[in-house]
Amino acid sequence: MVKLVDFTLAQREKALENWLLECKTAFNRKFPKIDFDSEHWPIRTLYQTEQLDWHFTESTSAFKDEGKVFKRVLRCLVAERMLAGQPKSLSLHFNGYRLLDRVSAGSLYELTVAHCRVLEDHCLSEAQKIQSKANHHRGRLIGLQSTIEHMASKGVIARLGYVVSGDTLKKLSVIAKRQARETKALKAETIDRKIEALNDAVAALLDNDPRLDALDRIAICTLIILMCAPSRINEVLCMAVDDHVTVEGYAHKEVGRSSEVHSAHQMLLITMKGSKGASWSAKPALLFMIDLFHFAIRTIKRQGERSRLLVEWYSKNPRTLYLPPHLEHLRGRNLTRHDLDSIVGLRDTARAGTFNATTERIFHKLKSSVFKAENPKQKTAIGGM
Questions:
Q1: How many CB atoms are closer than 10 A to CB 293?
Q2: Which of 70, 74, 79 is nearest to 36 (CA)?
Q3: Distance between CA atoms of 57 and 94, rounded to whole angstroms?
Q4: Quick one: which of 125, 134, 137, 141 has its CA closest to 178?
Q5: Which of these, 124, 119, 116, lies nearest to 162 by C-alpha position?
Q6: Angle, vertex CA 287, rays to CA 282 and CA 290, nearest 5
Q7: For residue 55, which phi and psi values (nearest 5 degrees)?
Q8: What are the C-alpha distances in Å from 4 to residues 1, 7, 108, 255?
Q9: Measured distance between the N- and C-terminal CA atoms of the chain, rounded to whole angstroms
Q10: Measuring CA to CA, which residue among 205, 226, 223 is closest to residue 214?
Q11: Running along the chain, 385 residues long, what does each successive block of 10 average in pLDDT?
């Protein structure tokens, strides 16, 4: 019997071997510390690149072919991207190639246009189930088309001339646009409710509403600062208590401009430090924003007066307990639990009901100094402080 040899298959196998050797040679030259045949390429760990370390075990787990052709091709594709240094996110770049794990071909060498059409139907079906993924599947198909062209240029597969069906792309675009409109409408309604809630919160702050506690006031003031600042401020918590904005005029008034126009322009400029290292510059703003900004800063400063006072005191008197004037009479005396709670809260009298958690912790730590007083009203007491 005469055994026939599939020369086309042999040529494609040889082409893949040559591609692997080409990639391995270039890869070992540029990244000698990494084993090309390993399942883990720690490229960022060893070479501080923008691209992340790559794990083949996870990325190839879906491919089940016995000849490992799909996995070997992926190794070449990843190597080429790493040698090029782009894109930054390799995982997303190969989403299109990963679609091939769904084809019925026994080997990548047997890939046909019919297989690719099946993948298009799969992506369209998935997009109809989860409409928010329509653009994702559209990108996968376009990426698959590009990858197939590249593999064909290397001789690993036949030149299929595959192009994603225009009808498929159109249907995916229709789904994506419909989903975008629905999402936009939903967000608009949500934003309207949030704006109403924020307006109510700011109004309550301005009216000194007793329902707002200190944390509520600080949170609302932080939002005011974020809205009024004309630049992106990502470091609100790093602002100093003396930060402020000022109206700045032009260095030189342009000839022919009226004073009214000049004054109007002045009211629309404030000087502020931009985020991410940007220099000081004039930024557009409305005049009321300056007043609201300063109001928020003053409110935050008022909420932090006690903390700043204590920091200043203990920086100068690290071993002396701070007592406000109305509690100074307690210094050197035996303290009841109510006295201790007044000191912790800096209040004239202890709160009714349960004690402050800090009071309880301090009382527990000093339990060796606790004794019962003769006065029946003093149930427990601590030694003089």
A1: 23
A2: 79
A3: 14
A4: 134
A5: 116
A6: 75
A7: -120, 115
A8: 10, 9, 21, 92
A9: 107
A10: 205
A11: 62 93 94 92 90 82 66 91 87 85 78 91 92 91 93 91 92 92 85 86 90 88 78 62 60 50 54 59 67 85 84 89 84 81 74 70 81 60 51
The residue count of the chain comes to 385
**What are the start-end ranges of the E strands in 3-106?**
40-41, 54-55
Express the helix, strand and coil content of the chain in percent, nearest 5 each.
60, 5, 35
**Short-list 114, 125, 76, 121, CA closest to 97:** 76
Q: Which two tokens stand for residue 361?
A: 């912790």
Global model pTM greater than 0.70? no
Burial of 107 (0-12, 13-18, 19+ CB in 10 A): middle
Unique residue bearing structure tokens 């404030």: 270
Calculate ∠ Cα 196-198-204, nearest 5°: 105
Looking from the CA of 59 toward its CB, the CA atoms found within 13 Å total: 23
